[in-house]
């Protein structure tokens, strides 16, 4: 298999394979904060994120959500469908935290009356600015019909994963998704791991996600492994 690096992200690399419709995704041992301005190597992070994302994407697939995941190759590598990525980060919030708390002067931890969906334009040079639906459609990043599908899929993912995390004593506070076009459909791309969501332990209220790194609260891999272990016990054997 000839693998040519086509994209090097903050936490993952993407490479070509012999099949033009399939790419290889490699999870890296790198943690970043402040949109890449703070960077650290953390041994074991790539492996644990890969395992968590696989479990979640397999679970979502069973529940009818199509994802780009094709097959695992190793502890840090997987084959994924080559999609045309939509340059939007789709954030759903159930509970006030992070930038929403800062931006609107809200108390962290308040449950929102209804989940909120926000969009950010994926652009490192511009620091991923917030973008609304009329801006995103006027700039032809996405069509109105696609946005409707994205919203419906994001709400379904939220319902499924809120319930799943609830079963393992964790509140799903917020998360980020990315979508791609594949053979005329929209499918879930990228990953779902504690790098792109907030998970709070229901008993201790401790963060079980990248806030541990952002706020220097301890060892990130130990915390991610705790999430993996709980998920594995609940859905690992399915
Ligand atoms: O920082 P903020 O509160 O806006 O983040 C909301 C959610 O989106 C968090 O779970 C965060 O980890 C995720 N996120 C992400 N990638 C970004 C920005 C936010 O995964 N570039």
UniProtKB/TrEMBL annotation:
Q: Which GO terms describe its molecular function?
A: ATP binding; phosphoribosylaminoimidazolesuccinocarboxamide synthase activity
- Which InterPro entries does this one have? SAICAR_synt/ADE2_N, SAICAR_synt_PurC, SAICAR_synth, SAICAR_synthetase, SAICAR_synthetase_CS
Q: Which Pfam families match?
A: SAICAR_synt
Identify the pathway.
Answer: Purine metabolism; IMP biosynthesis via de novo pathway; 5-amino-1-(5-phospho-D-ribosyl)imidazole-4-carboxamide from 5-amino-1-(5-phospho-D-ribosyl)imidazole-4-carboxylate: step 1/2
Ordered alphabetically, the record's keywords are: ATP-binding, Ligase, Nucleotide-binding, Purine biosynthesis
User: What organism does the UniProt record list as the source?
Assistant: Latilactobacillus fuchuensis
Annotated ranges, domain SAICAR synthetase/ADE2 N-terminal:
6-230
Q: Origin, by domain of life?
A: Bacteria
Instruction: Give the family this protein belongs to, as stated in its UniProt record.
Output: Belongs to the SAICAR synthetase family.
GO annotation, biological process:
'de novo' IMP biosynthetic process; cobalamin biosynthetic process
Q: What is its EC number?
A: 6.3.2.6
Q: What class of enzyme is it?
A: ligase
Q: Can you state which reaction this protein catalyses?
A: 5-amino-1-(5-phospho-D-ribosyl)imidazole-4-carboxylate + L-aspartate + ATP = (2S)-2-[5-amino-1-(5-phospho-beta-D-ribosyl)imidazole-4-carboxamido]succinate + ADP + phosphate + 2 H(+)
Task: Write the protein's name.
Answer: Phosphoribosylaminoimidazole-succinocarboxamide synthase
